[in-house]
């Protein structure tokens, strides 16, 4: 235990330096010392170790609500009050949210579509409404741009592409990935902002070929595409915001891990009743007898 190490070596080295080396607060050490060494049973130790592991896996983004659901899934009988108390005592502090600028270029001469979606973000089945948008990531080699396609039913990322240029080809690759994965029926609502990439003739031609209904946010209104904006916020707050990528390839690999390994398969969504997108879709399959 870190505090015990500080205590055992305090006679030879200053407490301030020992606490800095062990990554603990001096006040926390003295509080522990005043209380006496805490005796932790095996079950309690396993709980704390698991909480630390879950918190680390989320890159310091898992709050007490999500922690409770994760622990209960693994068989721990625990309430939110105790989880909050334990997280505080173990200094498991969620990273603060950060603001990020928009990437929409709406100063173009292409026609724009009406906002057919009108903030109806809860379709009753998959492949009814897809949301899409672009964001950016900084690396020491320069900028990267990420385009995603999200099924609003399960909030699953069904298509994505990343490149050093923000072009129509970028958003087209993301859409083609989604179509190859999902094979959507005719009439799917495709919602985006008014960016030139989505309004371009080539992209609109692709939507018409697959009989998708184009819907676009009102000018300067990010709330019209809130689910996708929330995804970008989660990506940067939970995963990439405090990372300095040396190369573009390093950033691409990290984004791939977030989408494929963490976001779709591990991260719990309050909108889905604290389930992952994949688990939410599996629940639908069980009910309907699909798969």
TrEMBL record:
Task: Return the SUPFAM superfamilies for the record.
Answer: Ribonuclease H-like (SSF53098)
Determine the domain of life of the protein's source.
Bacteria
Picking any one GO molecular function of the record gives: nucleic acid binding
GO BP annotation list: DNA integration
Q: Where would I find the Integrase catalytic domain in this sequence? A: 122-285
**PANTHER family in the cross-refs:** TRANSPOSASE INSF FOR INSERTION SEQUENCE IS3B-RELATED, TRANSPOSASE INSO FOR INSERTION SEQUENCE ELEMENT IS911B-RELATED
What is the protein name stated in its UniProt record? Answer: Transposase InsO and inactivated derivatives
> What organism does the record attribute this protein to?
Thiohalomonas denitrificans
What is the taxonomic lineage of the source species? Answer: Bacteria, Pseudomonadati, Pseudomonadota, Gammaproteobacteria, Thiohalomonadales
